[in-house]
Specification:
Layout lengths: L2 H29 L6 H33 L3 H30 L9 H33 L4
Helix pairs in contact: 1-2, 1-4, 2-3, 3-4
């Protein structure tokens, strides 16, 4: 196996693992814990979300650098660059905005209502972005397994 393919597969697997295990298992597990109230779970999940976002950026940059030598198709390079842009947008724009919104909300008392609704709406945007990133990683895996004729 070529080194670029090994690096590409490792970076894509790390990215997909951070998306699935981090955002779909670890963070929701904090919120479902009976020992934590919603405000404490939110406060504890913020640093974990920051580290996961850093990991997504690093893995997507490595993936973007490895993809041109790993996948013959130009679509693979384009997907890797879009994935990198999405990870950077998530880390540098969306996550700080979400942290500022959730810091001003008391989740247990559900006050203030307008800020809670806005924070929930932006959290939904974050979830859709993470799902789109997962789909892009799966598309890269699909392009990597395709054989050239």
């Amino acid at each position: 196996m070529r080194p670029a393919a090994l690096i590409g597969f490792a970076a894509a697997a790390l990215l997909l693992g951070a998306l699935v295990v981090g955002y779909l298992v670890a963070i929701p597990a904090l919120f479902s814990s009976p020992l934590l109230d919603a405000n404490l779970a939110r406060a504890l999940s913020a640093p974990l979300g920051q580290r996961l976002a850093d990991l997504l950026v690093a893995a997507s940059v490595v993936l973007a650098l490895a993809t041109p030598r790993w996948i013959v198709s130009k679509a693979g390079t384009t997907i890797a660059l879009v994935l990198t842009a999405a990870a950077l947008t998530h880390r540098l724009l969306l996550l700080p905005h979400l942290d500022r919104l959730w810091a001003r909300v008391d989740v247990v008392a559900a006050r203030p209502v307008d800020l809670l609704a806005e924070a929930q709406r932006w959290s939904d945007h974050q979830q859709w972005l993470l799902v789109a990133m997962g789909v892009l990683v799966l598309a890269l895996f699909g392009l990597a397994t395709r054989r050239t004729v």
